[in-house]
Amino acid sequence: MENFIRKTIIDYIKYYPADRQTSTIWQEPLIAFAAADDILFATLKQTISPTHALPTDLLKDAQTVITYFIPFSKDTVISNANGRETSREWAVAYIETNQLILDLNIHMEVQLRQQGHYASILPATHNFDTKKLISDWSHRHVAFIAGLGKFGLNNMLITNKGCCGRVGSIATTLKLQPTLRSDRENCLYHHQGRCKKCVERCVNGALKETSFDRHLCYDRCLHNAVIFNELGLADVCGKCLVNLPCSFINPTGKY
Question: What's the pTM?
Fold first, then answer.
């Protein structure tokens, strides 16, 4: 079933641009699985919020959480390298990837149901407290638990295909073999105490070496949302993800 899940997700993303006539093109995703009873899920109630959901809160008999990272194309990433405002290509990619993740999760729910299993349907974003700016289901943290990557200084998940992309997840009653988590850091700062280029890249001063102001960060995202209002809700920035050693790869693999 692992191969079936992987192939279904990969094929759906591969054909999505042509099927939906999107401007965005994505690279092949990375996929990982976490056991729904992994003890790390309970720790999210301390590290993120007491209201953060467990897999069984989403789906009573959940056995597995399927996670995936969808990397943006290099053209999309490079487009966002210059200036203080996010690029139009990045804003479009954000909106179209949000829709892709929702559509993919709906598709996976159908596919799993046909195999005799149930699954949750989760949106890519905008499931957070608008005052605290904290989510009750963090796709990135769930993906970390599944072994999809490690967090960088920029608070983004750095996978073997970098951090420029989006993460989605699905809870299901299908029991799958969990992916092993690596003990190795993927961020050069966490690995060797050097780099910090993401801090330099932050255009609103929200990201520091020792702190992160999520409200200052979101102010910049809302600024960009106004600029690209005609596209939909593009509350995004992405400057601290691009033009970095970890944009496209896991840079600590060299060391």
Answer: 0.94
State the Cα–Cα distance between residues 191 and 184, nearest whole angstrom. Answer: 8
Give the residue among 126, 131, 190, 137 at the shortest CA–CA distance from 163: 190
Amino acid at 120: S
pLDDT at position 176 over 90:
yes
Distant-in-sequence, close-in-space partners of 130: CB < 8 Å, separation ≥ 6? none
Q: Tell me the CA distances in angstroms from 10 to 7, 87, 105, 194, 231, one per residue in order.
A: 5, 27, 13, 35, 27
Judge whether residue 210 has pLDDT over 80: yes
Is residue 160 within 8 Å of residue 97, measured between CB atoms? no
As a whole number of angstroms, the distance between CA 126 and CA 128 comes to 6
| DSSP designation for 98 | H
Residues 150-159: b if buried by 16+ CB within 10 A, e if exposed? bbbbbebbbb
Residue 67: beta bridge partners?
32, 169
Nearest Cα neighbor of 117 from 168, 169, 171 is 171
